[in-house]
Amino acid sequence: MGRTARRSYDLHQVEIVPSRRTRSSKEVSTAWQLDAYRFEIPLVTHPTDAIVSPASAVRIGQLGGLGVLNAEGLWARHADAEGALQRVLEAATEGEDPADAVRTLQELHAAPIQPDLLAEALRTVREAGVTVAARVSPQRARELTPTLLAAGVEILFVQGTIISAEHVSAGEPLNLKDFIAGLDVPVVAGGVGDYRTAIHLMRTGAAGVIVGYGQSSATTTDSVLGIGVPMATAIIDAAAARRDYLDETGGRYVHVIADGGMDGSGDMAKAIACGADAVMLGEQLADAAESPGGGLYWTSAAAHPSLPRSEVTGFARSERDVKTVLYGPSDSPYGTVDLFGALRRAMAKTGYSDLKEFQRVGLTVRG
Predict the structure, then answer these.
(1) 272 with 239: CB under 8 angstroms?
(2) Partners of residue 278 on adjacent β-strands
(3) How many CB atoms lie within 10 A of CB 18?
(4) Which residues contact 321 (CB under 8 A, 6 or more apart)?
């Protein structure tokens, strides 16, 4: 009595409804464009050291996606980042306590960020000729952004578990509207889980809004904080905010990027059907041969010094390269390989030729 709660839905609770037409998957485009940057597939990597190294960011970019380096991760703190990752792998596979790997990550992240190392990591990506993107937390955005811009970052991600238009702290608060206005590069901000926060972030001038916090088999945010984001509802709410903001501004379009709650290609298709422009993938790429985590997966929240919200999860590392994971051919019937080939086929089977059209597909809710 006296309280209400809204019924909301995860992606596995909704289904895509076929339309009256179909088309060949060869006639389907999965391309999308964020500001001046065009990508052949709607892929943004979750900014975790388990997935994104300078080398793997380059490879993702060459394959048509966007690799996002964690500017507060191991490549920014340790000259021998591969050696640091090896320590995490040994702690996860040889330690007696499952928490040993998290303790190792906390220890490694206690080292200070070194601007020279961060600039060198980004230089590798820049010189390969792919789009350079990096993630900072709201708490360190003002401190690290000058280094990132000097190193050639073209798209800046300001990402936390939950983010608001104004981050309040004991010191000077980070006002995203003022912060973004002072930059010449597009900023993507998040995560959010509701309409009101999404439209507030859009009003800061962000080019994109991240929905979710990277919910995966490794994340424990719901257990630790009691915060959950039912992704289908959250994406649809953010898409509604985008529509209203488009009307409010007379045509300024803000991209919605879905982060988490997706087990495989079917959930990816549903995320875009709900209104996402792109998907942010992490654990789906963990077993690719190029992933620096050696088959392990965690999010950046695993290294929080006092309240980690991710465990280190192990995957059986396959011999597949990341190109096969993204484009096939697949030997798996479970939607874990040929992720974007499956998305193209879902679009073709429902008769849509591009991502914006596919956002209009019909949806049903499981009873």
Answers:
(1) no
(2) 257
(3) 12
(4) 288, 289, 290
Condensed to tens digits (0 to 9), the pLDDT of residues 266-287 reads 999 999 999 999 999 999 999 8
In a domain, 102, yes or no: yes
Lowest-confidence pick of 124-128, 238-242, 306-310, 344-348: 306-310
Q: What's this model's pTM, rounded to 2 decimal places?
A: 0.94
Residue at 4 is within a domain = no
Average pLDDT over residues 351-361: 96
Task: Indicate whether 172 belongs to any domain.
Answer: yes
Q: How many helices (H) and strands (E) does the chain have?
A: 13, 16
Q: How many domains does the chain have?
A: 1
Q: Which domain holds residue 357?
A: 11-365
Pair of tokens at residue 200: 């507030």
Within 13 Å, how many C-alpha atoms sit on residue 167's CB side? 22
Residue of 262, 358, 282 whose CA lies nearest to 11: 262
147: domain CATH number is 3.20.20.70
Q: Identify whether 97 is part of a domain.
A: yes
